[in-house]
């Protein structure tokens, strides 16, 4: 209680209003699936905010569990220190821990997991043991050729994280940040060769996950080639149905 005394009243009231708004929201457990550059990272925080869900990015969760030295985090660190992949069971266990926290009381948005059918089966088994299930899988469908144009045209201001695109959102002056005038860079992964490899892995490993969930009739296909605002409208339409 002592800590709350130091929180500004405006912040407390804002959080109270947010919780009152969220109390009326239905529970939703969502999975976002799509290739790199399809817009999942743009839409997930919007979904999180609009539907009072927690955003579960498995990479962030693993790092947090390792930093917190939870039992599962310690196991994950041992695997990573040996140069091994963290097992599917371990990742599902970390997700299981996360979704029991109050922030996930209305459900979650899973981004980056499951990547394989085996992972989907393990995730579903964990949820079923709690009497829950995945309510909706949002499939960010987009052609590979469009992704190449999107990704190879991206430029970043490293200090702030501001992003630009040579075609869709160019800086005012080519090659420099609008705010600071500092040089922009391209991430080393933002090239056609790396994208090709990542897309091959997506088509081989993750597309079957869409078929897996299609059989459970929970997949909604989005037109991810559209501008972000239109994709947001599609997401809202799907989740409000």
Please describe the topology of this protein:
Blueprint: H1 9-23, E1 28-33, H2 40-51, E2 54-57, H3 58-68, H4 71-81, H5 88-99, E3 107-111, H6 117-129, E4 136-141, H7 144-152, E5 154-156, E6 163-165, H8 192-214, E7 219-223, H9 228-240
Parallel strand pairs: 1-3, 1-4, 2-3, 4-7
Antiparallel strand pairs: 5-6
Helix pairs in contact: 2-9, 3-4, 3-5, 4-5, 5-6, 7-8
List keywords for this structure.
alpha/beta; 241 residues; 49% helix; 7 strands; Rossmann fold; two-stranded antiparallel sheet; 5-stranded parallel β-sheet
Describe this structure in words.
The chain is an alpha/beta fold. The chain has 9 helices and 7 strands; from the N terminus they run αβαβαααβαβαββαβα. The chain has helices at residues 9-23, 40-51, 58-68, 71-81, 88-99, 117-129, 144-152, 192-214, 228-240, and strands at 28-33, 54-57, 107-111, 136-141, 154-156, 163-165, 219-223. A 5-stranded parallel sheet has the order 2-3-1-4-7, with helices on both faces. It has a two-stranded antiparallel sheet with strand order 5-6. Helix 2 (40-51) packs across helix 9, helix 3 (58-68) crosses helix 5 and helix 4 (71-81) packs antiparallel against helix 5. Keywords: Kinase, Nucleotide-binding, Transferase. Its EC number is 2.7.4.3. It catalyses: AMP + ATP = 2 ADP.
């Amino acid at each position: 209680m002592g800590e709350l005394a130091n929180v500004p009243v405006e912040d407390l009231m804002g959080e109270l209003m947010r919780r009152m708004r969220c109390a009326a929201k239905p529970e939703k457990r969502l999975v976002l699936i799509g290739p790199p550059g399809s817009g999942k990272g743009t839409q997930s925080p919007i979904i999180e905010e609009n539907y009072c869900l927690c955003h579960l990015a498995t990479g962030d969760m693993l790092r947090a569990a390792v930093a917190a030295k939870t039992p599962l985090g310690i196991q994950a660190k041992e695997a990573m220190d040996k140069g091994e992949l963290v097992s599917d069971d371990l990742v599902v266990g970390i997700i299981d821990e996360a979704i029991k926290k109050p922030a996930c009381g209305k459900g979650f948005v899973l981004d980056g997991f499951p990547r394989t059918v085996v992972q989907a089966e393990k995730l579903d088994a964990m949820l079923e043991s709690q009497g829950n299930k995945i309510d909706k899988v949002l499939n960010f469908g987009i052609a590979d050729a469009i992704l190449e144009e999107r990704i190879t045209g991206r430029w970043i201001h490293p200090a702030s994280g501001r992003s630009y695109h040579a075609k869709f959102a160019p800086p005012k002056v080519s090659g420099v940040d609008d705010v600071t005038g500092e040089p922009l860079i391209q991430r080393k992964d933002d090239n056609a060769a790396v994208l090709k490899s990542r897309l091959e892995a997506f088509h081989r490993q993750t597309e079957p996950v869409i078929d897996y969930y299609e059989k459970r009739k929970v997949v909604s296909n989005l037109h991810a080639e559209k501008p972000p605002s239109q994709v947001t409208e599609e997401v809202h339409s799907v989740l409000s149905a």
